[in-house]
Amino acid sequence: MAAISHKVHVALGERAYDILIGPDLLDHAGAILAERFPGRRFGVVTDIEVEKAQLPRLRRSFEKAGLGFSVITVPSGESTKSWQHLQTVVEGLLAAKLERNDLVIALGGGVIGDIAGFAASITRRGMDFVQMPTTLLAQVDSSVGGKTGINSPHGKNLVGAFHQPKLVLADLSTLDTLSQRQFAAGYAEVVKYGLIDSPDFFEWLEAHQAEIFSGGPARGEAIARCCAHKARVVIEDEKETGVRALLNLGHTFGHALEKDTGYSDRLLHGEGVSIGMVLAHTFSARQGFAPGQDAGRIAAHLHKSGLPTTLADIPGTLGSTDTLMHAIAQDKKVSRGALTFILTRGIGKAFIEKNVDPDAVRTFIEDMRP
Amino acid sequence: MAAISHKVHVALGERAYDILIGPDLLDHAGAILAERFPGRRFGVVTDIEVEKAQLPRLRRSFEKAGLGFSVITVPSGESTKSWQHLQTVVEGLLAAKLERNDLVIALGGGVIGDIAGFAASITRRGMDFVQMPTTLLAQVDSSVGGKTGINSPHGKNLVGAFHQPKLVLADLSTLDTLSQRQFAAGYAEVVKYGLIDSPDFFEWLEAHQAEIFSGGPARGEAIARCCAHKARVVIEDEKETGVRALLNLGHTFGHALEKDTGYSDRLLHGEGVSIGMVLAHTFSARQGFAPGQDAGRIAAHLHKSGLPTTLADIPGTLGSTDTLMHAIAQDKKVSRGALTFILTRGIGKAFIEKNVDPDAVRTFIEDMRP
Ligand SMILES: NC(=O)c1ccc[n+]([C@@H]2O[C@H](COP(=O)([O-])OP(=O)(O)OC[C@H]3O[C@@H](n4cnc5c(N)ncnc54)[C@H](O)[C@@H]3O)[C@@H](O)[C@H]2O)c1
Ligand SMILES: NC(=O)c1ccc[n+]([C@@H]2O[C@H](COP(=O)([O-])OP(=O)(O)OC[C@H]3O[C@@H](n4cnc5c(N)ncnc54)[C@H](O)[C@@H]3O)[C@@H](O)[C@H]2O)c1
Ligand SMILES: [Zn+2]
Ligand SMILES: [Zn+2]
């Protein structure tokens, strides 16, 4: 029936679930859900762009399977992860008269996954939900692992819940309507998995990059390998008290740059991560942890993928080094003056370093400025 | 040190916690928390009335123990359980720079316990919290069991989380500043525990009612017995998929009446429950489940406690029977036309009946109208 090309199981005990990956899963989603969740109704949460590009397919497959469903649409973009839109989604689910054992569907990128998953976790004190990620970033990262939430004026993702989905359906063909720039941004997170602890995977990416970008079979394989990697980490450390922090490689620098550019079109999240990963490797080399040549090899691969790799690649004027340092200190809890960073001993050898000297970071940023 | 007169343990595995009951626990709260949660900071959530009546004591004991804390105050009353005030509390906790392993304190009645507990569960994806209930209702009911939440325009408590506290401190002397009317309303829930499955407790209440109301030693004992009862039910059915529903004895009728009177001063929650319990017993007798005399005995006890027991006791004009039936159908999910009610075979013999005929309820309400 449905063409499922890859399947990853997230073995979290009573919160276990499957990630199904395939070329046209949305067209079969109705049948899959009817079989896995008989007799339940569905509240589909999506954003206006995904509604245009992908909802018609889901709608048809739901209708074919005879499923009862309602659709709640919110605007596209990071600013949707707000109190206001959270309230819209939750009240929308209640207005649709969904019961506690009905399901919420998140159809979209990481923004929709985060807000719809969080809304599910607090509506009627907890409804089940299904992730249908439609961006590369969401397929390889945000749809797996159960972190959900919205942003606060005090910072990103500060309000939310750990709430695992009951199922993830990653339809590869949804990526065909995604912009090249968004695809590349998601690819930065793909590369990240190689850099953390899988040098073989990084090499494989170097060899298959063109095929992944053009949509050949390597695309599905890359996504499946990322999901398996993330699943492994999440099983080991569901609530991020330890090793899950490695997934933040490149993110401390990246978040500071995102903040500095106002979470705007100037720099997408994955673009910030791309620059951040290069900076983390360069900084690690300077600190004597890593060989010097890795940063260059990584930068070359990311650059070839259409991603920015240096501070000079960010359009517009960057804030002062003080401003960036302030953002870095906020992102990573400062304990007695020292900073926590994900550093590395080379490709595939990332580690958590809790004792980074802020002055060394400051000098480093000064040197890296264009 | 602290005068702890009773201790109840809620054995919920890794979510287990203690309920400590005593005459002056607020004065010792600082020392108790400093010992149980060393090195943590505290965000105290309270309402304006409790701030005036009880916060000064807590503040002194925190200062004596050298604890770091911030206070967030919201208005008093049911309308505080809203999106707007939830946002105020969560953003207040973030503005106070509380970290994920700091603690939220709910100092107040059920309204504060519900909103502060919910805020704790979603701030930084989950902070620990401590209940310091200051109403009789909160001490015997809402502070135990981990149900937290706010109201939606679609209905009461429709948005929330299951989030168990780490500790409950019930200070008996806080009840001295509570109005007689609020105390009596909470007492309806005390009586409820006897009616569900503890006829001995109901008899004991009949014998000790005056002492409970005047603040003698029976007050602490009654509260401890209620907490132990609720703890037992919660351990058996944490997420209310079965037997926990018995705690709703009197609540289906009660909620319909509360709704009809606009959740206003005309009828407090416990007052609605008082009338509801008498109605549930009278209806059960009519249906042939229970002996006729129990309803009268219960009504006499509640009436002596200063509580309303009949529809005629509600000030103002009641809505039509249709309106009440509509509220009843909304409160309890209607499955294929039948209603679910907590009925009874007599004092201490409540049971869940899923097959109640709506027409019988309608006729019954008609008969009961003044
Ligand atoms: N929960 C987690 O573990 C986790 C992990 C990483 C990132 N995130 C979050 O994910 C968010 C970023 O996710 P994102 O990059 O997917 O952003 P996004 O959800 O904003 O999607 C990017 C843009 O692409 C559009 N779009 C999505 N799918 C499309 C499709 N198939 N065709 C055409 N357009 C499409 C969207 O409307 C949006 O404009 C951030 O808020 C981040 O905090 C969460
Ligand atoms: N979570 C649960 O399991 C659960 C169970 C039952 C009820 N509830 C909820 O509890 C709420 C009702 O709780 P409540 O009856 O405690 O109401 P409440 O919190 O509104 O308190 C009643 C009034 O008494 C005041 N007050 C509280 N303590 C005082 C004190 N010591 N001295 C002087 N004034 C004081 C308050 O400011 C308020 O005006 C409802 O919202 C209900 O839904 C929750
Ligand atoms: Zn990321
Ligand atoms: Zn009640």
Describe this structure as you would to a colleague:
The structure is a homodimer of 370-residue chains. By secondary structure, chain A is of the alpha/beta class. Chain A has two domains: 172 residues, 3-Layer(aba) Sandwich (Rossmann fold); 177 residues, Dehydroquinate synthase-like, alpha domain, CATH 1.20.1090. Helix content of chain A is 48%, strand content 18%. The first copy, chain A, is built from 14 helices and eleven strands. In chain A, the strands form three sheets. In chain A, strands 1-2-9-6-5-3-4 form a seven-stranded mixed beta sheet, with helices on both faces. The first copy, chain A, has a two-stranded antiparallel sheet with strand order 7-8. In chain A, α4 crosses α5, α6 packs parallel to α7 and α10 packs across α11. The relative contact order of chain A is 0.10. The complex binds nicotinamide-adenine-dinucleotide (NAD) (2 copies) and zinc ion (ZN) (2 copies). The site of one nicotinamide-adenine-dinucleotide has 29 residues of chain A, from α2, α5 and α6. Chains A, B: It catalyses: 7-phospho-2-dehydro-3-deoxy-D-arabino-heptonate = 3-dehydroquinate + phosphate. Chains A, B: It comes from Devosia crocina. Chains A, B: Its cofactor is NAD(+); Co(2+); Zn(2+). Chains A, B: This is 3-dehydroquinate synthase. Chains A, B: GO terms for molecular function: 3-dehydroquinate synthase activity; metal ion binding; nucleotide binding.
